[in-house]
Design a protein that fits this description.
Largest sheet: 6 strands, mixed
Number of helices: 4
Bound molecules: CU-O-CU linkage, copper (II) ion
Strand order of the largest sheet: 13-10-15-20-17-18
Helix content: under 10%
CATH topology of one domain: Immunoglobulin-like
Strand content: 35-45%
CATH superfamily of one domain: Cupredoxins -  blue copper proteins
Distance between the termini: 32 Å
Length: 497
């Protein structure tokens, strides 16, 4: 596969040239960093100041009478970080609207492709069929085309935080990096009331006056990182709260590559859910760590007024071996500020949230071993991925081939999978449709006792998972959620039937 052309925005050429022109004028006029809001942007050349805006919430599209029917148009032209006509979005916004459904609903999405490259829709974490026009990652929608998804949410589906994003192989990292992602919430009727229930979707990007930046070969190998870390598409927004509040934050790591450790000044984070599954027991910690694709629902209970930074530390990646010289990550950046007001208050007791489905216990019916592989050129069968000249990514020595079936599992099986990672980088492993329990890993972790859908497999280490394939026969994929790796071939197919 050859290096793709730079995905330019489909604003008209005249408009694009206009943006570049004004950007250049701003630069020559002595503006460093971002241009002020409302004017076309210049590429940042210095520290980017916080906007100080209050947090925006993506529009909610909520099901009624058992159905949510929406049209989503994926196209350039969304505002991001306060700057117009630069990002790609759904219905003109990045993140896209929050889709809210209930167990038993039908989600009907008419997806219109307004990009100049194929796209599609994946409902990350939903336990729904991967067949036909449901959550089928093999569908590619050509530019200008429309596709009607019909996704039946099972009546026993857990309530929680999920998300949607494009999944057209070869284009996924570019499209998320440009702004295409949104939250998907399965609502329950029996959850305790909170003062605020917030979607906090984290992305990162690099914007240029001509639109989203593309990544070079080295950044694709390591997994690209944007210079802007954004929350709901905003650069360091302010989250308002009153003392005594009980706020639920639905954190989604929608960055293409970063594993993030989040910390809120002076406030422990009480985690009530991981990857859309409510935990049997809430855990309170100083930090919450999210690999790409992971979600965590946390409760925040401010007691006194003040301004507190929500900061994100990115795991360092690619610092060894063949990645020498390409080390990225390790930095801590402010993501947002929590601004509280009101008299000091003692927080009220934590409510109990009804716990989600428990993992299966007991004997397993089979075991498999999978190995992450990153090789030089001819070292792998299945040809080179698009990771760049000389690099290929895959599982078990093979790059992704949608026509090949890599794993065949009987419906009803409960399997133990050992994922070995001999490469010099950690890879977040993700399996569609069938969430798993972490049983053990090379770091000596105890079994988690909960289901999740992304797990970080350490460099030079391994994880062991128990995966119930007890429902939803169909064909889908597993892959690394560093999306440049997925696009380069670190993905494989699975048939459950
Ligand atoms: Cu979040 Cu296969 O993806
Ligand atoms: Cu997924
Ligand atoms: Cu990877």
């Amino acid at each position: 596969m050859t290096e793709r052309a730079r995905p330019g925005p489909t604003v008209s050429r005249r408009q694009a040239l206009g943006l570049i022109g004004v950007g250049a004028v701003a630069v020559t006029a002595g503006v460093t960093g971002w241009a002020t809001s409302g004017t076309p942007l210049a590429r940042p050349t210095g520290p980017i100041p916080p906007t100080g805006e209050s947090l925006r919430t993506p529009a909610d599209l909520t099901s009624s009478r058992g159905r949510l029917a929406v049209e989503l148009t994926a196209a350039p032209g969304a505002s991001l970080a306060g700057y117009p006509a630069t990002a790609w979005g759904y219905n003109g916004s990045s993140p896209g609207p929050t889709l809210r459904v209930r167990p038993g609903d039908e989600l009907a999405v008419r997806l219109r492709n307004g990009l100049d490259q194929p796209t599609n829709l994946h409902t990350h974490g939903l336990r729904v069929s991967a067949e036909g026009n449901s959550d089928n990652p093999f569908i590619h929608i050509a530019p200008g085309q429309v596709f009607d998804y019909r996704i039946a949410i099972p009546t026993a589906h857990p309530a929680g935080t999920f998300w949607y994003h494009p999944h057209a192989h070869g284009h996924v990292a570019d499209q998320l990096f440009a702004g295409l992602a949104g939250a998907l919430i399965v609502d329950a009727s029996d959850e305790p009331a909170v003062s605020a229930d917030r979607v906090l979707l984290i992305t990162d990007t690099t914007l240029t006056s001509a639109g989203p930046a593309t990544a070079d070969t080295t950044s694709r190998m390591v997994g690209r990182q944007g210079e802007l870390l954004l929350l709901n598409g905003q650069h360091q927004p302010v989250i308002p709260a009153a003392t005594g509040d009980l706020q639920r934050w639905r954190l989604v790591n929608a960055t293409t590559s970063r594993t993030l450790t989040l910390r809120l000044d002076a406030h422990p984070l009480t985690r009530i859910a991981l990857d859309g599954i409510t935990l049997p027991v809430a855990t309170t910690d100083e930090t919450v760590r999210l690999a790409p694709g992971n979600r965590a629902d946390v409760l925040v209970r401010p007691e006194r007024s003040g301004t507190f930074t929500l900061a994100a530390t990115t795991d360092p990646r690619g610092a060894m071996g063949m990645m020498a010289g390409a080390a990225v990550g390790g930095e801590t950046q402010p993501l947002a500020a929590l601004a509280t007001s009101g008299p000091a208050r003692t927080p009220s007791a934590l409510p109990t949230f009804p716990s989600g489905p428990a993992p299966v216990t007991g004997a397993t019916t089979g075991a498999r071993r999978l190995t992450f592989t990153m090789g030089m050129g001819g070292g792998m069968s299945g040809g080179m991925g698009s990771g760049g000249p000389g690099m290929s990514f895959g599982f078990d020595g093979r790059s992704f081939d949608p026509a090949r079936t890599d794993q065949i599992v009987a419906v009803g099986a409960v399997e133990e999978w050992t994922l070995t990672n001999p490469t010099p980088m950690a890879h977040p492993f993700h399996l569609h449709v069938w969430p798993f329990e972490l049983l053990a890993d090379s770091a000596g972790s105890p079994p988690t006792g909960t289901l999740q859908d992304v797990v970080l497999v350490p460099a030079g280490g391994w994880v062991r998972l128990r995966i119930p394939f007890t429902a939803l026969p169909g064909r889908s994929v597993y892959h690394c959620h560093i999306l440049d790796h997925e696009d380069a071939g670190m993905m494989a197919t699975i048939t459950v039937g």
